[in-house]
Amino acid sequence: MAEQRDILSRPGPQPDVTMRYGELPDQVVDGWLPARGAGQLVLVLHGGYWRHDVDRGYLASLAADFARRGYAVACPEYRRTGDGGGWPATFTDVAAALDATPALLAAAAPGRVEPGPAVYAGHSAGGHLALWGALRHRLPPGAPGRRDTAPPVRGVLGLAPVCDLAETYRRGLDLGAAGALMGGGPGKHPDRYAAADPAALPAPEVPTVLLQGPSDGRVPIVLTRDYAGRHGLRLIELDGADHFAVVDPAAPAWPRVLTALTSLARPGNDRPASRTETPA
Asked: BD-FAE-like domain: from which residue to which, for each copy (predicted)?
């Protein structure tokens, strides 16, 4: 099956506002606002196997669709491998963006962002960063991005997420993307992987939903199944969905993505965890 990879180059809607959380070129955040009133904040982290040749732009259609449905959406950029990123810069950037964005967007758009915890969402390598970001208070002392207190996050939505950095390295996925990010493998840098790999960290402490197609050719679903099963997380398997369908509002899988987001963002709509679901 051909991938819906054209979303990487498809023109998307422009953000309503762009903000800075640092002085470097990649330390920016795009924001999309609901048409009226205040929206639940959704922080969305892009993928691309942490490489500089993929940026946040391909998530514009996703962000605009979320905003059209009443959410306030923020898509941070961060330094990536090939242009100043990798360990530890990618992690310190993402941590700074997650911490700064709620106040930045609320200041840029008064009355348009609901107060309270955000939902973290991430696609592919961004899914890795969303899972990691929600557990920053559980990182080892001195780890890049560590917080002393739990981050203000309501739930995590992982869209075809990279859940296991060590296995991603061992399999050489995307021409060694994990090794490029971490400066080598877990044998060379065990402390780095202990501080950055969701598979090495405790189970998520907030409601977490993972969505992925079994035929995903970029992130093997067996890694997602193993991670979800180990931690009792809800995994929704989407038959016929490729790696990019979970971030494409034009894809048949999109209603399932929206339902999962609602279950995390809207109080009272959480569903039981520790289950794997496939379409009827």
From this structure: 39-222
